[in-house]
């Protein structure tokens, strides 16, 4: 079959454009993935209470790490454990959290700590607490009738 030269050019151009489009689509779908990057560690949501470190929620001092404390939180409908925690001022804290049931949020109001807690995954965020006072932790993922009641408090003390 004879093809006009321009027809051929446009056919090639169209094919290339389609391939580029599909590649971009595939790559972005791959990168968006199913899980946020902070959720690389997995856990059996049925065994949260007997799995370290979640068998001991709260603040733990650590040595030889880039952070001073590890702060372990377990979220469940409709509360956080611990419900309140004190942190010494000017300390670097690695927050380690998970959910026992459904997806919950974990936002420390007024800071850039904002994580999604998914059952089966461990979410982590390292941050510094330089200002004395109370920090409210709220759930920002709708999780049921008690969603708006879910909160915990971090008291930064000197
Ligand atoms: Cu937990 Cu909303």
TrEMBL record:
<dbReference type="Pfam" id="PF00116">
    <property type="entry name" value="COX2"/>
</dbReference>
<dbReference type="InterPro" id="IPR008972">
    <property type="entry name" value="Cupredoxin"/>
</dbReference>
<dbReference type="GO" id="GO:0005507">
    <property type="term" value="F:copper ion binding"/>
</dbReference>
<dbReference type="InterPro" id="IPR002429">
    <property type="entry name" value="CcO_II-like_C"/>
</dbReference>
<comment type="function">
    <text>Subunits I and II form the functional core of the enzyme complex. Electrons originating in cytochrome c are transferred via heme a and Cu(A) to the binuclear center formed by heme a3 and Cu(B).</text>
</comment>
<dbReference type="InterPro" id="IPR051403">
    <property type="entry name" value="NosZ/Cyto_c_oxidase_sub2"/>
</dbReference>
<protein>
    <recommendedName>
        <fullName>Cytochrome aa3 subunit 2</fullName>
    </recommendedName>
</protein>
<dbReference type="InterPro" id="IPR034214">
    <property type="entry name" value="Ba3_CcO_II_C"/>
</dbReference>
<dbReference type="GO" id="GO:0030313">
    <property type="term" value="C:cell envelope"/>
</dbReference>
<feature type="domain" description="Cytochrome oxidase subunit II copper A binding">
    <location>
        <begin position="55"/>
        <end position="158"/>
    </location>
</feature>
<dbReference type="GO" id="GO:0016020">
    <property type="term" value="C:membrane"/>
</dbReference>
<dbReference type="InterPro" id="IPR001505">
    <property type="entry name" value="Copper_CuA"/>
</dbReference>
<keyword id="KW-0479">Metal-binding</keyword>
<dbReference type="GO" id="GO:0004129">
    <property type="term" value="F:cytochrome-c oxidase activity"/>
</dbReference>
<keyword id="KW-0186">Copper</keyword>
